[in-house]
């Protein structure tokens, strides 16, 4: 059974830091690209950051460049999102996604999300 379980969310003051983790099971983790998305109330889900299956390539939304860092540990089947210099506009539910493109199909798994609230 495929599972992606996020953790590490919470309430933090502006300027603070959080590290999100997403533990995966039920599939070959190292074959999948991993992403973090977020969805704020009343807004569409947006891509925050992604990382290739080997970890050799990363991409970030402009809004988080220089503040967030995505990483992965294929030995632990876990992807991380280090979030520094947090702003109130970072408040959202953060979701982990695993994706693999194969001939004729996309394999796409999602976690249940973890709430991040940035407020004083």
Written overview of the protein:
The protein is mostly beta strands. It is 0% helix and 55% strand. It has strands at residues 3-7, 10-12, 18-25, 33-39, 46-51, 58-60, 68-73, 78-83, 92-102, 105-110, 114-118. The strands form two sheets. Strands 2, 4, 5, 6, 9, 10 and 11 form a seven-stranded mixed sheet that branches. Strands 1-3-8-7 form a four-stranded antiparallel sheet, with no helix packed on it. The model has no long low-confidence stretch (mean pLDDT 97). It is globular. The chain contains no helices and eleven strands.
Please, how many helices?
Answer: 0
- Categorize the overall geometry: globular
Helix-strand makeup class: mainly beta
Number of beta-strand segments: 11
Q: So what's the oligomer here? A: single chain
Q: Which residues sit in consecutive blocks of at least 5 with pLDDT less than 50?
A: none
- The helical percent reads under 10%
The major beta sheet can be summarized as: 7 strands, mixed
Query: Radius of gyration, Cα only, in angstroms?
Result: 14 Å
pLDDT averaged over residues: 97
